[in-house]
Amino acid sequence: MQNGEQPRDRFSKFLTQVEAEKRIIVFPLNHVPGIFAFEEGRLTCMDVVSGDGAWSFLASFIKDEEIGNVVSISWPQFASEKGLKANDEVSFFKQAGDHGNEEEQGPWKKFRIQVRRQIRLFGQNIWGDLMV
């Protein structure tokens, strides 16, 4: 799934091997327009809800010479407990702030997360939601 085709309140990608091993996920800033305002060195806290609980992730903004400005999301406990692997599809859905302010640009962001994994069943590749 390409991020350019997604609504502005959602962003997703397939985890790379490096991201799965390091328990981070990196998005080029142009894949998350209107969700994050880039400010190099700034940290943003992400309150994330899943089907079985609430999590806190930390997003940092980095200027990378090869791919440009990126948002790097650290989620070591979540990635470890859920057993995330390369090629899992991770989607974040922006949630309204405490006061319903969709334009909230503060250091706290609220999201719902969905993780999907491809499995092979009876010779067919199918995608299923991980219980997260």
Automatic annotation (TrEMBL):
<keyword id="KW-0804">Transcription</keyword>
<dbReference type="GO" id="GO:0005634">
    <property type="term" value="C:nucleus"/>
</dbReference>
<dbReference type="InterPro" id="IPR015300">
    <property type="entry name" value="DNA-bd_pseudobarrel_sf"/>
</dbReference>
<keyword id="KW-0238">DNA-binding</keyword>
<keyword id="KW-0539">Nucleus</keyword>
<protein>
    <recommendedName>
        <fullName>TF-B3 domain-containing protein</fullName>
    </recommendedName>
</protein>
<dbReference type="GO" id="GO:0003677">
    <property type="term" value="F:DNA binding"/>
</dbReference>
<keyword id="KW-0805">Transcription regulation</keyword>
